[in-house]
């Protein structure tokens, strides 16, 4: 499923015009892909002049980079190496908790009988 990096989107509307199933609309001047309509053809990714539309696998790298950048910004407020290390460890504990939640959710979703 393609995803729009709203910071990069320049509101050119080329993706809106190119989408064969009208799955892209403009919201507050930025492209928004409607997941339930999108057929994952990739035409929007190819047409975007500023590379604001990303593939699923690119979202993972983008999100990781964003998380690390936010963590670095957060720890810059702390004074001293020990305080910074504690802040990083705290963020890592939070991420591990989220990971357990995701893993548990995935297990239970696999067990759903249809």
TrEMBL record:
Residues covered by the 4Fe-4S ferredoxin-type domain: 1-28, 29-58
Which InterPro entries does the entry link to? 4Fe4S_Fe-S-bd, 4Fe4S_Fe_S_CS
Named from the GO MF annotations, one term is: oxidoreductase activity
Q: What is this protein called?
A: 4Fe-4S dicluster domain-containing protein
